[in-house]
Design brief:
- The chain is α/β, with parallel strands linked by helices.
- It has 14 helices and 16 strands.
- An 8-stranded mixed β-sheet has the order 3-2-1-4-5-6-7-8, with helices on both faces.
- α7 packs parallel to α10 and α9 crosses α10.
Length: about 425
């Protein structure tokens, strides 16, 4: 059976692509190794924050189907690989899923097809890793028989303004013809396509975007530590600096960095640079600073309790928001987890509240979920705001709490600080 598009990997990157492709009338098959994910999608239900059940039902009605079997895929004209690339134990990229997806794609390759890698990785992966796998499995040549390209994903979970359709799409092909083929394909599902010189430049663009954010977040996180010691309100300083109409972009401190990009992607670049014999000191220093923030949050919590004659050991600590980003359920690399580990190690009695997380455990140790926030916030010895979900009435919550540590700077912005509140 002929299909327009095969998407390998049906997570937060692959599923939005499926939605946009079916919206423009393309026939789409999704391939994923998770049987649970496939069954959920085929029954009209979503497992991704930004894709609703109604979205999936429209996709299925338009002909989309998901499968775990290569034999059920058919003959796709375009294959897009959207599998995860987590960090390995050595802090380099774990490309196990990319290799497996490339092998699957290679077995399906026919002359004239387009294969695109969207999974974030280090510069050179498309040419040095994916290409040989595809060529070996298919017996075809990437420069002659089929088109191969890289296009970095730019999905921002929970962003109500920018999605796949209206975010410019970067493409870089192994040959000019491959770049043109990728641009034609993405031109169907994206409003703007930006052509890179090649796949390495497209791969580097993704890492540059996230390394830029990583380094600047580290800068303000380090400033937050010494501004507290100097008695400087960094949040107000950032507010003032942000009035400059040129040469400045605001970044804000927080309890750590989380999500699918910032804590991970810069390490791919650092890994590649180390293979050349150079240290990438900016990234390594930024990683060191950002990874210190959970410990700093716990230290500030202990100081706040101590000033009110209460030790951290035995204190009832309530965490508000344990996802990595506000108003979504995604917990990937959330700093709430290392903060909770440190609090438990220092003897705190831990509870949490998050409207998006019904159950939460630290190293298989369940953490009590608060069901009556109005009651529990009054009895907690200290409340730590880790994620500012829109559901929270922060001024009211802070006013009810004995002590309230705001790691997101929201109370300042709302003019709701008081004698029992402190900002990171």
């Amino acid at each position: 059976m002929q299909v327009d598009l095969l998407v390998i990997g049906l997570g937060y990157v692959g599923l939005p692509l499926v939605r946009e492709a079916t919206n423009v009338g393309l026939s789409v098959v999704g391939y994923d190794i998770g049987q649970g994910v496939v069954d959920l999608l085929n029954s009209g239900h979503s497992h991704v924050d930004d894709i609703s059940d109604a979205d999936v039902q429209r996709m299925v009605a338009a002909g989309f189907r998901a499968t775990t079997s290569e034999a059920e895929i058919g003959e796709p004209d375009t294959i897009v690989i959207c599998v995860p690339t987590p960090l390995s134990e050595a802090d380099g990229p774990d490309l196990t899923a990319v290799r497996a997806a490339s092998e699957s794609a290679g077995r399906l390759l026919r002359p004239g097809m387009l294969v695109v890698l969207e999974s974030t990785t280090y510069p050179g992966t498309t040419d040095e890793l994916v290409r040989p796998i595809l060529e070996k499995a298919s017996g075809l040549n990437a420069e002659v028989d089929f088109h191969l390209a890289f296009s970095p994903e730019r999905i921002d979970p929970g962003n109500p303004v920018y999605g796949l359709r209206n975010t410019p799409k970067v493409v870089g092909g192994l040959t000019p013809d491959a770049t043109a083929a990728a641009a034609r394909f993405y031109g169907k599902v994206c409003d703007q396509v930006v052509e890179a010189r090649g796949p390495r430049e497209a791969e580097m663009a993704k890492l540059l975007e996230n390394t830029y954010r990583h380094v600047n977040i580290a800068l303000v996180n380090e400033m937050a530590v010494f501004c507290h010691e100097l008695g400087v309100d960094l949040w107000d300083a950032i507010r003032c600096a942000s009035t400059k109409p040129f040469g400045f972009q605001p970044f804000y401190p927080g309890p750590g960095v989380g999500g699918h990009c910032i804590p991970i992607d810069p390490n791919y670049l650092s890994y590649k640079v180390r293979t050349l014999g150079y240290p990438f000191r900016f990234v390594e220093l930024a990683q060191e600073i950002n990874s210190r923030m959970p410990g700093y949050v716990v230290d500030r919590t202990a100081e706040l309790l101590n000033r009110h004659a209460k030790p951290l050991n035995g204190a009832n600590v309530l965490l508000l928001g344990v996802t990595y980003k506000h108003d979504i359920a995604d917990q990937r690399e959330s700093p709430a987890r290392p903060i909770a580990r440190r609090l438990l190690a220092r003897g705190a009695v831990l509870s949490y509240h998050d409207p998006y997380v019904p159950d939460w455990a630290i190293d298989d140790r369940p953490v009590r979920r608060v069901t009556d926030l109005d009651t529990d916030i009054v009895t907690a010895d200290v409340v730590i705001l880790l994620q500012d979900h829109s559901e929270y009435d922060l001024p009211a919550l802070a006013a009810s709490a004995k002590l309230f540590l705001d790691t997101r700077g929201k109370l300042d912005a709302l003019g709701a600080t008081g004698p029992n509140t402190e900002t990171l």
